[in-house]
Write a structure and sequence with these properties.
Blueprint: H1 3-27, H2 33-56, H3 67-95
Helix pairs in contact: 1-2, 2-3
Length: 96
């Protein structure tokens, strides 16, 4: 592993941990469905980061990870963001 890859991994871990930490703090203070979907998206993105790093280091074998699980993990944050945007869009249309 070269220095660039190490910096990339560390930055993803640190920034993802900060985003997840603040997401969990904010979760307890909100009851808004759209924000809850954004929070779940941030946490799911961090889970995907952890999973990909574990796979990169060989801690999780390729036999354990079926191709669909990698695709699913990388798609879940985007799916929750789409759900949050749809909730916000439905609120906007309801007010009109």
């Amino acid at each position: 592993m070269d220095l660039g890859q190490a910096v990339f991994i560390l930055s993803r871990l640190i920034l993802g941990a900060l985003a997840s930490f603040f997401a969990i703090l904010f979760w307890s203070r909100t009851r808004d469905l759209a924000w809850i979907f954004v929070i779940i998206s941030a946490i799911a993105a961090y889970v995907e980061t952890i999973f990909s790093i574990l796979k990169l280091f060989g801690i999780i074998s390729e036999n354990f990870t079926i191709g669909t699980s990698s695709i699913l993990l990388s798609s879940v944050p985007t799916i929750f963001l789409i759900a949050a945007f749809l909730v916000m869009l439905s609120r906007k249309n309801r007010r009109l």
